[in-house]
Amino acid sequence: VQLQASGGGLVQPGGSLRLSCAVSGSTLDFYAITWFRQAPGKEREGVSCLSTTDGMTYYADSVKGRFTISRDKPNKMVYLQMNSLKPEDTAIYYCATMYGFIANRWYDESIYDFWGQGTQVTVSS
After folding, report:
1. What are the residues facing 70 on neighbouring strands?
2. How many angstroms separate the CA atoms of 12 and 10, rounded?
3. Using one digit for the tens of pLDDT, what is the confidence trace for 25-37?
4. Which residue of 37, 63, 89, 114 has the fewest C-beta atoms within 10 A of its own C-beta?
């Protein structure tokens, strides 16, 4: 299984970006696709998750109301639309997936089996 994250870049505060995660290498359905981020000097944190079985979405409190996760199932793509970006959103963003899903631990990186390479998001004026 391969994950390819893209769409990062430099944006001014208040701006928007859309990240993409392409999933390939397997015909199996995944149970969840999650976006994580890691800022310099900080631990990796869960940002948003989409459960592919029931369509439920999950968000970190810090991004609720600003970020939206969605998917294009036929094309095996998952997107993270990020609006009203803040300097504190600056980080490397990763997408991850797994064969099983534990909803109440969606933010726990240890339960994920596959990771993309990350894409840099920088929010700065």
Report:
1. 79
2. 7
3. 765 566 789 999 9
4. 114
Q: DSSP assignment, residue 74?
A: G
Arithmetic mean of pLDDT, 86-95: 98
For 50-81, how does the pLDDT look when each residue is reduced to its tens digit (9 = 90+)?
998 888 999 999 999 999 999 988 888 999 99
Contacts 24+ apart (CB under 8 A), 15-19: 15/85, 15/123, 16/81, 16/82, 16/83, 16/84, 16/85, 17/82, 17/85, 17/121, 18/79, 18/80, 18/81, 18/82, 19/79, 19/80, 19/82, 19/93, 19/95, 19/119, 19/121
| Residue the block writes with tokens 């990771």 | 115
Find, among 118, 111, 105, 103, the residue nearest to 38 by Cα: 118
DSSP category for residue 12: -
pLDDT given for residue 99 in this prediction:
81
Q: At which residue do the structure tokens 């944190």 appear?
A: 45
